[in-house]
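Hi all, a correction to my earlier message: I attached the wrong file for GNAT family N-acetyltransferase. Here's the right sequence:
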Amino acid sequence: MVGVTNLTSVDTDLDEAVQAADAAALAAGVSVREVSELAELAAVVDLYAGIWGRDANPPMTLELLRAFTKAGNYVGGAFEDGRLVGACVGFFHAPSEDALHSHIAGVSGDVLGRHVGFALKLHQRAWAMLRGVADIAWTFDPLVSRNAWFNLVKLAAHPVEYLPNFYGAMADTINGDDDSDRLLVRWSLRDPAVVAACAGSTSPALVAEELSAGAVVALGIGADGGPEPGPLDGRTSLVAVPPDISALRAADPALAQKWRLAVREALFALLADGARIAGFDRSGWYVVRRDA
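and the right structure:
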């Protein structure tokens, strides 16, 4: 349960957010709640260390999580039969920005495919709305197709900035030696598209339709599986990413790096020129538009 169901407020959006979060947790077969006790915070540290392969240098420390919860920030956990199987951590922006930054989220490998991550994000949304927060922001690797689909379609978040090598070298089992480019997204919690997405109604982009309507391939996939740059002057541009960048990093690091640089060049240039990422096709294409 979200933990905010005993509300006396007549805020319909908040009530619906709570119901959506509870429904997502039920569908995933987990319970999602805030985490604040030391033993459970330690379990969050261990979960993240295992996911990112960083036992000696975990992505989050117990001391930092303890400080976050004491200061009123967000640490949420997904539990199955009392066992932590997913966690999400966020901290507040500057007061004038009215936003929460969702810094890290991860799910145990044995529950992948059950939409536990979706349940965590919807819990975080309801938690933030209860506190009067309008937006949640976070970053993700633009080369990871499944994350692009999850963030841009499943959650209906909006990309706002391309951040080259944002964290520097991360040297873990997920990122390897690759540059840590990230897309920064904003999740406007009461936006109608977000409300619809949280209720299970998504609006994915369809590349075939975009091509029929005159979209230009700004970055395609060559015959060798590598990136194939195209023109960046289209009213609507399509930018491809590899089907599985994690497997490509392991099998061919040099080709993975070519993809990193090619996607960076295309998306960074398009966004800097005033275009916006308007959607994502599940087959691995960003749809980027220039408004009239």
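Sorry for the mix-up. Residues 87 and 285 are 28 Å apart (CA to CA).
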